[in-house]
Amino acid sequence: MEAELKGLYNFTEIIQMETFTESKGLVENPHYQDERQKKLAGLSDGMIDKPIIKLINAFNNLPYCFTLQSCFGHFIYKDQNDPYNLEPLPISDTITTVEYRIAYLCLCIENSDLGRELLEALNKITAIDPANIQFGCAKWFWKRQVNSYVLQLEPDRFKHKDRAILDYREALHIEKTRNSFFDQIEGLLQMLKEKYL
Question: For a surface tag, which of 5, 24, 99, 164 has the fewest beta carbons within 10 Å of its beta carbon?
Fold first, then answer.
């Protein structure tokens, strides 16, 4: 998870933060290039969850978008209290509930033909599992950065939260979906790279 998000709050606290709203249309942003340059100048690989470093860097190599924040998604459960845990869920008959910390990608997208094409492609990723993947905006991101969009993996009933308590079987499903989610995003990036770079 990028350092900017890490600094927003203490992960040991339970904070109910609205993360998702319906998608807005792109608006004019004459400061896009300056904002992009400033954001990318402050980003390093050490600020990103290890499994998605290449993915984040690939987005940031596209001139018509840049990442604002991201998270691979973390599972916390009995005997696993690391809020940045990247290990797969274990096969267990003793784990009954899991705290899931949302997997997501937040991007600022340029108001351009390529930006609109990217928006459409990101929205299609929700088809992997429409009950658990949402694409839209986040009020608190948009206030800080216009044309910011969120692709997130969260059970629909929790889509306005940054974390959820799931039963173990649902957590296993979310983990499997998370892997497909990032695989699809990587496939999209490969297609964009081949098409435009």
Answer: 24
Token pair listed for 117 = 């094409």
Contact yes or no for 187/61 (Cβ under 8 A): no
Tell me how far the alpha carbon of residue 129 is from its chain's centroid.
Answer: 15
Distances (CA, A) of 151 to 23, 59, 91, 106, 196: 10, 13, 28, 7, 22
Greatest extent of the chain over all pairs of C-alpha atoms, in Å: 55
Per-residue pLDDT of 19-66, as tens digits, reads 688 899 999 999 999 999 999 999 999 999 999 999 999 999 999 999
pTM score of the predicted model: 0.88
Question: Beta-carbon neighbour count of residue 48 at 10 Å?
Answer: 22
Distance in angstroms (rounded) separating the CA atoms of residues 133 and 155: 7
**Which tens digit of pLDDT belongs to each residue from 135-159?**
999 888 898 899 999 999 999 999 9
